[in-house]
Specification:
By secondary structure, the chain is mostly helical. The chain contains eleven helices and no strands.
Length: 253
Amino acid sequence: MAGESTGSEPDRTLRLLWRSHFGEPVGSRGPKQRSSVDEVVETAVQLADVDGIEAVSMRRIADRLGLKPMSVYTYVPGKAELVDLMVDRVAGEMALPSLDGDLRERLAQIARQQWNEYLRHPWLLSIDTSRPPLGPNVSDHWEWCLRAIDGLGLSDLDMDRIVTLLLGFVTGPARAHLDAERHRAADQESAVDWWERNEPLLDEILDAERYPVSARVGQAAGAADSADPSDAFEFGLARLIDGIVDYIRVTAR
């Protein structure tokens, strides 16, 4: 993420993220601006959705918007800042639903919201989230998540860690699910077809006497994954929520 500052100067990305408060940046060179930060960010998101975050460049954005490449820098200082703006943009594209139901349902709601965001924008899985951009949409989302577990007697630090744990869990199953979808689209062969085609060879090299447990478990897992690849996400989410609920029951004041 962007956000490296020098001296006591405020983070320049924060002014862009909160441009609804501070106002649109005004270019310091060239003719009157023909576009806007919002259009630059939206174009970048569209490029990333199709070709991945690596495909996003100032030149490609300029071509899409009919601008000269260097003029894009009058809206966004660089790609690091642009990625922060993209993350905040997609965090606000879906309205945050009301947090209804019991604790388990609220926790599941948070995880599924994140799951759906990854499926809409797979490039998010390639973003460094060690310092998330504190834009209005990301901040609204974080507040929404924390409210799901507020008032349960947890310390503020525990609340932060529980939400971080829950959101972090989603990345693994989402990445596996999207990788499987890309593989299926690339070779037009389902996981079931692959296993069936290679079964004779696998039977020969994966000796059941040497790998008795692996053979049994692998067969069961392959059958389950072929039915619905998101089952692994739902199973893991349920077990994680079990642990969080037990922890709250024991430690909450």
